[in-house]
Amino acid sequence: TDPVSGCPVSVGAAAFDPFGDAYQADPPEAVRWSRDEEPVFYSPSLGYWVVTRYDDVKAVFRDNITFSPSIALEKITPVSDEAIATLERYDYAMNRTLVNEDEPEHMPRRRVLMDPFTPDRLSHHEPMVRRLTREYVDRFVDAGKADLVDEMLWEVPLTVALHFLGVPEEDMATLRKYSIAHTVNTWGRPSPEEQLTVAENVGKFWQYAGTVLDKLRRDPSGDGWMPYSIRKQREFPDVITDSYLHSMMMAGIVAAHETTANAAANALKLLLENRTVWEELCADPGLIPNAVEECLRHSGSVAAWRRLVTSDTTVGGVPIPAGAKLLIVNSSANRDERHFEDPDSVDIRRDNATEHLTFGYGSHQCMGKNLARMELQVFLEELTRRLPHLDLVPGQRFTYVPNTSFRGPEHLWVQWDPAANPERTDP
Ligand code: HEM
After folding, report:
1. Which residue is closest in CA terms to ligand 1's atom 41?
2. Do the domain assignments include residue 234?
3. Which of 21, 61, 386, 397 has its CA 20 to 30 A from that of 316?
């Protein structure tokens, strides 16, 4: 029985630990018991209700009134007083930014800011993504061995994000320095020392974001989502507020960076572990777009997301009271056999792969999904073409930052024989 609510708790629910080894190693596998036996359960150690089946997770995403996204970025581990004091010294005032905003504020803002994310507008960024990807591959293509995360997959999505947002070139290096890992701070169990280090960096990041924003305000004629947002503020000053702009200048980088870097590392790892699939992609790059969806489904980079229950309701038939917090495990939904046939296998021709919930669903669904997809496609196109003989370094142990939500290997060592590079044998 749970000591707080007095509710009976099953063995599986009592043992559920999203910071433990099993969940870190494989979130959907760690909650397989739940999908089978108890698809909606209360976790006493986390203080959240956990939802693991496809239909239930989708139903929660679909109703953003009963299930408010307001807690999506709340620190899952309470912040220390010292960390709060540090942030105050930097006048840190991060406000809500689309992803954790309730109606009626959210939708008008989303509508006004959507245009730069349309496929047509995004296609203008493709040459930049390809140029960056090629530059990074050039650096290691003759080395025979690389950590794809450290040498490519971490930095390219960060730089793409800075370009997409319209950050001036001369400010990119500074913002890159401050854009440290937010994963552990938001969804993990940071130690008090870690909290302080992160607070220092977040404070500096916040201030510098303000400086860059001021510069863009002086001349907002350029390309990019932030100059666009500044121009829209003139038309819709009540919708696009100053506080929103400063917050998004920082949050936009985080939203676009770690999610995409992790997704890319997960995809490469999954494909190289399934060698025949990798070889099929090398032989027929036309398969890459659907393979990207299948990778996002099978091994997505957002393992779970959060919602706050605003009125008494039911999820999957289980009564849940107003005020309850939900951990909706979208990575588990993506492996639900009730929706995906043979869900644990990697099938790059799967006809419903795009129905995965890695980008969420409904009115808050990821605005950057097509930018992320384009990046992942370009990475796979370039790597399958230039390094088809790539292999995982055998025997490596993959490590993950312990947290509920952002998931990708910290390192991904690969090796190949540079003498067999296609560009050398077939110049
Ligand atoms: C929202 C995942 C890349 C911008 C979200 C949400 C998820 C997500 C789960 C919340 C959805 C919901 O509540 O229904 C991902 C993944 C990515 C990725 C897995 C990479 C593979 C990006 C990129 C950008 C971006 C590249 C570009 C700026 C946003 C924005 C929202 C959002 C602005 C808030 C939308 C709203 O609430 O209306 N993303 N994201 N994301 N994402 Fe992404």
Report:
1. 368
2. yes
3. 21
